Amino acid sequence: MSARAISDLVVPQGGQSVWLVTLSAAAMGFLAVFALALAVSAAGLARGWSAQLAQTATIRISAPPAEIEQQIAIVLDVLRTTPGITEARLLGEEEQGALLEAWLGPDLPLDVLPLPRLIELTETAEGPDRQGLRLRLSAEAPGAVYDDHTRWRRPLVQAAARMQVLAVVALGLIGLVMSAVITLAASASLASNGQVVAVLRLVGARDRFIARAFVRSISRRAFLGATAGTLAALALFWALPDLGGPLEPVAGFGFRGRSWLLPLLIPPLATVLAWLASLATAYHVLRRVT
Amino acid sequence: MILFQDVTHDYGGGPLFQGVSLKLEAGSFHFLTGPSGAGKSTFLKLCYGELLPSSGSVSIMGTDLRTMSRDQLAAARQRVGIVHQDCRFLDHLGVAQNVALPMTATERPLPESDLEDLLSWVGLADRAAALPPTLSGGERQRAALARAVIVAPNLLLADEPTGNLDWEMSQRLLLLMVELNRMGTAVLIATHDLNLIRFAKAHVNARVLRIAGRKLAVAGSDL
Ligand SMILES: Nc1ncnc2c1ncn2[C@@H]1O[C@H](COP(=O)(O)OP(=O)(O)OP(=O)(O)O)[C@@H](O)[C@H]1O
Ligand SMILES: [Mg+2]
Prior knowledge:
The complex is a heterodimer of chains A (290) and B (223).
Chain A: H1 3-9, H2 16-54, E1 56-61, H3 65-80, E2 85-90, H4 93-104, E3 117-123, H5 130-140, E4 144-147, H6 150-192, H7 194-202, H8 207-239, H9 248-251, H10 266-286
Helix pairs in contact in A: 1-8, 2-6, 2-8, 3-5, 6-8, 6-10, 8-10
Chain B: E1 2-10, E2 15-24, E3 29-33, H1 40-47, E4 55-60, E5 63-64, H2 70-77, E6 80-83, H3 95-104, H4 112-121, H5 137-149, E7 155-159, H6 167-182, E8 186-190, H7 194-201, E9 207-212, E10 215-218
Parallel strand pairs in B: 3-8, 3-9, 6-7, 7-8
Antiparallel strand pairs in B: 1-2, 1-4, 4-5, 9-10
Helix pairs in contact in B: 3-5
The complex binds adenosine-5'-triphosphate (ATP) and magnesium ion.
Adenosine-5'-triphosphate (ATP) binds at residues 11, 16, 34, 36-42, 85 of chain B.
């Protein structure tokens, strides 16, 4: 018989503390997947929002119907001569209607509403001289308003960063609670096996041997529990409908691409945590046995 | 092997014995007698470090118990066979696995045939797979003695090893201990059984120690 098999043998398998470890590891694995998803999605959102919004801007032109075409022409002319702008495109009326439809529904009488017209800009990485552009526009086309989205971007990016912090704190708390539960379970398991420990010391077993026996059985339970919890949570994420489309930024909660591999780190990490917590506990408890 | 120097032990209600100095030589054979409650089991527990003396010092194989690390104590116990008065086992393992425990739990190899021979010597060959809670008192004592001698210890400490056994089995187990002693094991047996002591004296040069009235003394040869 191998040394491992022997050290497994000397601790009775079963008992409440074993279930405590398995169950809590499963619950923590499950929760950790969600916290991780939050962290990953928040990072993705922050990146996506700042990238998508960084190099685009819009000019909104509101003017009486008689003047609007003229102002549009002036604005396009100004834009053509502004360095830092690679493309300026006037949105057609149907295109604008489609944008609004997503939010307001299909039954809008668009043709009777005096809607402002939109010009979509694509900027170079440095962008135009925004202050100068605003001044020129207000002088030549008073109905045009330049909007570079910073107003929207900054709070969104900030919110995403906060979400990430939140997710990391949640992951930390999950680890902490799991260590605490495992510590309790390990002491309970050692205490309920007082006679086993005493007999092993009596026949000359070293603390290392006795601790290993307990630590192995607890770590194994933690691994099984965390794996089950993680897989269950991943299955849920897998089954989430892919909303896509205009709801993408809100619906993009979850994993994609290579980030699907991240949750696979949870079971080994939980096992290491369980191993450390139960080892420390075992040595602590053993000190009281001669 | 074991050295007591001016040892006093006190559980808290006054000293059980005082000023005990004693040397157990390698290869010696001792009995320990005395009235119930005199402190025989306590004395044995001091010998293998389950208890520390209230004052004075106990050395085991040359090292003071107080200065021993936990691993050193474990290493010392690997060379000591102990029969506890209440014969504690791992209740979820069978008799054979319990008897083999001093070897397996210290990761020493144990030939299967040695285990079988020993089990048949103590009459437990057909109970090898039985769980300890299903054993009779006498079977427990035989299993405990088998577990103590399986490591061929340098020192055997046995607390009432024959308390629940019939006379024939008592003799058989005593001869096992005498045999070990011939091969060099120092033996210390706590017992009430004067017949056993007389029987032993016919086979081995045994000294009798007696605890009474807080003193440990070598008893007269009139037993
Ligand atoms: N852990 C303990 N705490 C307090 N008192 C104890 C403890 N263990 C034993 N005693 C007391 O110490 C005294 C000696 O006990 P011990 O077991 O050494 O006696 P003994 O000589 O082995 O008796 P017996 O022949 O009945 O086995 C007894 O009065 C007992 O009640
Ligand atoms: Mg006793």
